[in-house]
Amino acid sequence: MAKLEDIQRLCLSRGIIYPTAEIYGGLSGCFDYGPVGTLIKRKFLDYWRGFFVKDEENIVEVDGATILPEKVLMASGHVESFVDPITQCEKCKSIYRADNFIEEKTGKFVEGKSPKELTEIIRKEGLSCPNCKGRLGDVKMFNLMFKMFAGPTGDQPAYLRPESAQNIFTSFERVFRAVRGKLPLGIAQQGHAFRNEISARQFVIRSREFNQIEIEMFFDPEDDGCERFDEVKDKEIILMTREAQMKGREATRVKVGEAVEKKMLPNKWMGYFLAKEFEFFKSLGIKEEDMRFRHMLPEETPHYSGGNFDLEIKFDFGWKEVVGNAYRTDHDLKNHSKFSGEDLSVPLPNGRKIIPHVVEPSFGLERILYAIILKGYVDDKERGWVWLRLPKRIAPFIAGVYSLVNKDNLPEKAREVYRILKKEFDVFFDDAGSIGKRYARADEIGVPFGITIDYQTLQDDTVTVRDRDSTKQVRVKVEELKQFLKDSIKN
Ligand code: GAP
Fold first, then answer.
1. Which of 41, 64, 124, 437 could form a disulfide with 433 if both were Cys (CB 3.0 to 4.6 A apart)?
2. Which residue's CA is the nearest one to ligand 1's atom 17?
3. Which of 167, 294, 321 maximizes ligand 1 atoms within 8 Å of its Cβ, making it the mutation to test the pocket?
C-alpha cells in the first residue's frame, strides 16, 4: 500500500490538494483544491448527490451559512462539550492533546477520562515533554470551535460552525413547512466545517477547515416510515460490535435486517444508511475487507448521540473514521426549542405533535478522497510510472486528446476532436513530449482514456482509444466517441 508521503507528494505535484497560502508558509490544517482536485471534488459531490439525494423521494437540500450565533452552539452543547484535553509543557510551552499523547506513550486507552484522571496518569507514568523533557502542566479542556465576533462593535459572539448539521436543525421548521410537511423528511447539506484541532496532522485527515456532507433524517420514533428498508434488509455489512471490541474480537458480517432485529443497530434508518454507504464505497473502489462499521464505545460517543456507528476505512496508518453515523434522537431539536423558545414539534397525520428523532450520516470529504486516492494508487514497475485507478465517474478528466505527431495536419484534427468532446465532457489537450510521456502524465491523475489522432484518422476518421487500466487500445469512429465515453462512465 502507498504511504501518506506518496499521496501527499502526488497531490502537491499535480495540483490536487496543497497547503493554503503556501507562499507564506501555509496555515496548519488548511488546504486548497487545485484544478485537478476541484474537478475530482465536484464529481464526487455530484455522484454522492445522485446516490443519496436524487435516489430518494423525501430528501431535500439546503446550503447554510458557516457563521453561527453563539446561542446555537450553546443550545447544541458544543460550547460546553466540544472539547479535547490538552497539556502544555511548562518549559518550552509545546502543547499536546493529552489523551492522544498518553495513548501513544503508554499504549493505554484513556478516551473519556477526566482532566484530573489524565493529569494523574501523566504524573504516575512520569511522562514529560518529548521536545525538551520539561514538566507537563495539569490537563485542561480546550474548546475546538473558532470563536469570532460579528459586527463593528464586536458585541455579537459567533462561531464558525464545527459541523454543518446545526444549520439544518435551526432551519428545520421552516424547511419542513416549505417543502413537504410530512415525516420522514431528510435534509442534506454539503459545506464547510471548522475545528481548531490541537494538532492538525496526517495531511488532510485532521484539518482545521474541511468539507462535510451530511443528511439529517427526521422521523417519528414510533413509526419510522423507512419504506425502502426491505430493499436493503438482506444486504450484508461488516459490523464491529461493542462486545467484539471489548473482547478483542474481529468485526463480523451481518445482514442489515438481522442487525436491526437483534438490536445491534438502533433502528431501520440507521440500517438503511449503513447498507447504502457500504454499496457506495464499494462502487468507489474500496474493498469490503477494508471497511467496517464500528459501534463507538460509550466513552467515545458524542454528547448528543443515542448510538454512533463510524464507517472506518483501513488506511496506510491504520483504521480511521470517514463517515460518522449517529442516532441523535431528539437532542438537537429539543434543545433548540428550549433555548430559542420556538416550538419545533411537528404535527403527525393523526394530529399528535412530536419532536422528530434524527439519524445522521456525516461524511468527511477529505478523508474519503484520501482513501480513494490511496486505494487507487499503483506504483507500476512495468509501466515505469505511478498511476491512479480512479473510478471513472470521479476522474478529473474522462480523456486526454493527443496528436501522434505535431505535423501533417494531425494537430489540427486533434484540436477539432478535442473541441467536439469538450462541450460535453471534461477532457484536455496535450501536445507536449512523446506519446508515452503524455500517457504517463494522464495516468498519474487517473484519466481513464487517451485518445490519439494518427495518420489513419485522416483516412477513415477513427482514433485510437487507450484504456488507462489495461493499456489496451481500440479504434473508435470520431462520431461514436461521445457515446463510447458516456457508456464507459456509466459502467
Ligand atoms: N455532524 C456530525 C459530525 O460532525 P463527526 O464524526 O465529528 O460528526 C463527521 O464528523 C466526519 O467529518 C468524520 O467522519 C470525518 O470524515 C470528518 N471530519 C471530522 N473532523 C475532521 C477533521 N478535523 N479533518 C478532516 N475531516 C474531519
1. 437
2. 364
3. 321
